[in-house]
Amino acid sequence: xxxxxxxxxxxxxxxxxxxxxxxxxxxxxxxxxxxxxxxxxxxxxxxxxxxxxxxxxxxxxxxxxxxxxxxxxxxxxxxxxxxxxxxxxxxxxxxxxxxxxxxxxxxxxxxxxxxxxxxxxxxxxxxxxxxxxxxxxxxxxxxxxxxxxxxxxxxxxxxxxxxxxxxxxxxxxxxxxxxxxxxxxxxxxxxxxxxxxxxxxxxxxxxxxxxxxxxxxxxxxxxxxxxxxxxxxxxxxxxxxxxxxxxxxxxxxxxxxxxxxxxx
Length: 264
What we know:
The protein is α+β, with helices and mostly antiparallel strands. Helix content is 39%, strand content 17%.
């Protein structure tokens, strides 16, 4: 048990990179990475709990952190590491993203006022309810692409849009599903692939994203961002889920909403 805890926090004395068959943990490199990523998410939840200390969200965030920590401990102790990754993809990541967005909304007015040397007062932070409906979260305002603050500072409001794409009939995309023994095997997928090849691809995607009832649409040529800040241009697959089309970045498996051009 002591060796296992040391491996989680990077304090073990390693003589090599191989796992010992019959040992107390028997976690491969993939499982160790998932566990470390889970610890990072727990740290983010704890930081959010501290960030909202004293607010009406404090007890809810603390409860989410405690429950997530218990789930982490249980799934690791029972060696259900892949179920742990799926749990985070389905639940934790969306929860963290939502509250990080709330933090950004709360901090934006304050930073705008600090940048104004003549501002004497600090505007109150907007209060965003924990489980507010979507129509309450985004309200239309009568501006021409700018936001006017009480201090008179004009702030450009970013405009979000869904790009039009064209489906390529014969261009293929390579992806790398993982086998049971941890090997990455290259597969290709295109609009002209066989039904079995498409089924294999969808099985891989639904397993990685934790989604159901996903349909493969085809491939498109787009410029798509990565989490490391690089924005490459290349061919990516397009899927249909819950009535919408999404371009799938196979580097980090993020989804980006798109529209299919009827003229393409």
